[in-house]
Amino acid sequence: MDAFQIIFMSCHKHVSVCDVFFSVTDKRFYRERKSFLCIDGSKIIPFEQVNDDYCDCEDGSDEPGTSACPRGRFYCTNLGFRPHYIPSSRVNDGICDCCDASDEYNSHAHCQNTCWNLGQRERAYVEGQMRTLDEGLRVKQQLIEEGVLLWREKQAQLRELQQVAEDLQIKLEEHRRKKHEADRLKEQTLRALENSTVNSIFQLLDSNKDGSITVDELQAKVALIHDEERVLSEDEAVALLGGGHQIDLTKFQHTLWDTLTKGDGVKMQQLRIVKLSDLLFCLAANWEATNLKKVEEAYDTVNMEISDLRKKLAIDYGPDWEFLFLNGQCYKLKVYEYTYTLCPFNQVTQKNTAGTEVSLGKWGMWVGTQKNQYSQMVYENGEPCWQGGSRSATVTLTCGTETALRSVKEPSKCQYIMDFQTPVACQPVLKQRGIHSEL
Ligand SMILES: [Ca+2]
Ligand SMILES: [Ca+2]
Ligand SMILES: [Ca+2]
């Protein structure tokens, strides 16, 4: 209780109430002696002139209990709350300044001692803060553990994707080779067909010369070359004959001939290379092209995913990856007619009631203090501001038991500041500082 020790002084002349309090550091100056040395050392006065409501010392130190000195200070002990100094001019000015009412000892103001209530409220507030911090630190520990797992998971995912990409690369080379071969065969086929007529090919297929091609005749002369050469199935043969079991010359022209010469009929998608007697028809070029395109697209997609994931993993998520869980999340807050969305490590947007969305910035970097760089993040290069420059948002991370966007302000045009609460911002060091030492 040293801090609250008080001393009493006997008062003189005009000051009727005698108890004037000083802080411990100052009390040594006011020991009752014959004379008083102004604290700044400028003057020695008789002790009767201390608190005689007349300013003698230049530093006001002879009148700590009156308002006589313009530069004097009065010490409010405020037992139960925080002690503090007020200018001496506020002593007995009819306005309650000290919560213990000590500044109005000789006035008509009816001041109540409210220190205990104030202290109570402050202690409750601080206790609440401490509980928040404790809970925040507990959740943070959990998030750290999850962060480590998440980090490992992402690393595994990356390795997996890289394996897929490698496999696709092999597949891609294979398909390129196939496509190249198919193109070559197609050229060869088209050249061969140029020298043939509808009639000559029809005659070739119509083995018994009865004026129609049957499934059997087709199967005898046309082979399917897939990975290896094989006979056409009945269904495949029927499909080539336009859905029937036999065709005459006219129908042949519009079905099989058409397919052979164009080589891209829908029905032929299943067929890759058709060997017709000694003629090698390639109908596969388009099919191979489609195939190749599919593999190329898959390869590009996987590579894009790898690049995204690499970018994601290159971000600094704190020493324990405790901020990793924020990546992929978005937090919203409605402020008047705007809805703000913070997607950590990605972007910040603002949407009005009409649904128009404006970018306030994309993830930039950590810009916290030297002591704790993870206390603030900045999002830059948002949509251009009509006054020039681009929008940006600075996000301050504060300790809380839940993760949520708490406030958004725009102190200067197109520069936004956000308060983002999350357990991972809780620092054990705050706890040591703890409750105000005065309480
Ligand atoms: Ca005096
Ligand atoms: Ca006052
Ligand atoms: Ca026939």
TrEMBL record:
Q: Which PANTHER family match?
A: GLUCOSIDASE 2 SUBUNIT BETA, N-LINKED OLIGOSACCHARIDE PROCESSING
Q: Name one GO biological process term.
A: N-glycan processing
**Protein name in the entry:** Glucosidase 2 subunit beta
Which Pfam families does this chain map to? PRKCSH-like, PRKCSH_1
Which branch of life, at top level? Eukaryota
Q: Matching Gene3D superfamilies, A to Z?
A: EF-hand, Low-density Lipoprotein Receptor, Mannose-6-phosphate receptor binding domain
Sample GO molecular function, one term: calcium ion binding
- InterPro entries reported in the protein's UniProt record: EF-hand-dom_pair, EF_Hand_1_Ca_BS, EF_hand_dom, Gtb1-like, LDL_receptor-like_sf, LDrepeatLR_classA_rpt, Man6P_isomerase_rcpt-bd_dom_sf, MRH_dom
Q: Sorted alphabetically, which keywords does the UniProt record give?
A: Calcium, Coiled coil, Disulfide bond, Endoplasmic reticulum, Metal-binding, Signal
Q: Which organism is it from?
A: Seriola lalandi dorsalis
List where this protein forms a coiled coil.
Answer: 151-192
Which ranges carry the EF-hand domain? 193-228
The upper taxonomy is: Eukaryota, Metazoa, Chordata, Craniata, Vertebrata
Q: Where is the signal peptide?
A: none
Cellular component (GO) terms are: glucosidase II complex
Q: Which residues form the MRH domain?
A: 328-428
